[in-house]
Amino acid sequence: MKDIYDIVVVGAGPAGLMVAKEMAAAGQDVLLVDIKKDIPLINRSCCTMLINEPNTHGETVHIVDNNLHFEKTGFTVKYSGQFVKLVKSSRLSPGGYKLTMANEKEGVAHPYTKEVILRDLLQEAVQNGVDILTETAGIKAENINGGVKVYLRSSHSRFLKEVRCKIAFAADGVNSQITRGLKLAKQRKYFGSYRVASYFLDEVDYPYWDSWITCVGKGHTQLGRGQIYMVPKYLPNAKPGDKPILDVFCGSPIGVPSKQSLDWCLQEGPFNEWFHNAKIVHKAACVLNFYTCIMNPVEGNIVVVGDAASFIETYCQSALVYGYRAAQAALKQLDTGKGYEDYSTFWRESFEYCWPGEIEKALQGFGLHMISDEELDYIFSLTDKEEYFGYVSENTAPRVMKEAIMSHIDQIKKERPETAKTIEKHWQSSAEDIVQA
Fold it and tell me: What CA–CA distance (Å, rounded) separates 64 from 70?
């Protein structure tokens, strides 16, 4: 590794790999740094689904020749793996009643394999001449005259290594160490933290292979806190004709053991019969810190990309977009002295959580688990045989869910007036109340 580069990218997820390969393709001398030894290997819980909904985070993505084509920006990302087509997204109460969004024609989402897309991106980055430094963390970045100084620490040493560059990109994820030390992060609001544990399961007797399942209610976990998700997907080495496995997640507040909750759900939860013969083929985990978005993701010549600037996450597909857009803006900045604002403007206008009220709406959809199990069974019994047009989307699914439930509000007021009051109060809940609860 040299002491001076044109570009240093910290973080080799989808956003960082996209930045690195695009900058190198344009002739820049690029160093890509990542804490992992094997960049494509995923031990961090991640749903990794292509959201089919048009204009998700400012971009519409289609599967073209098995690759990801970004319609508005006009670029394509190679993908050599397999997709699962999901046509439904269902919220499942402890009693087994559903609230379902469906799109039979296009699908609500297409889960794909994150290891494969990272492998494909890494191969392109190396072919473009990117220097790769693994088992190294980005600790800090600071603007200096004429560029940026980035401080790195190897996993095998306690000493810091300094590297200088013209532009540095913080693409080190939702818990970004680089971002934490910047002035632009000081105005972020912290809501709370969640732990996530997930298992890839084979040999499951699962009835919803065409669906993304969100288990809503306290009865799905032993301590009544946290939420269970289930998504079919393929393993990295899957071949055409292979069956998908089931990725099952449990997210719970810090202090509530997510792995213990996940184990209880599989062994003793209301749908434990699905998992009597299940075999765990892979385990993953992560910690998520809930912050408001960074509204201006550029400080001097340090550019914050993707999840590092976001509320929770940007989806893998959107991390690719923000990486691509950030790279193009940086190239324009190097060429003309003006380009960063292109990226900042696109970020604020496209990432919905930058918009006032969007975080609250999304969390109100997430926070239905605050309602009692008995009430959820009753509410979802009213929607159980219905299907509502929608997608797997944090931003629009809560609106569809609210409209579905409120379409029955007159019946609920008549049959269960106290439940009606609970529902109406729920849609007024603050983000802090929902995350903390």
Answer: 10
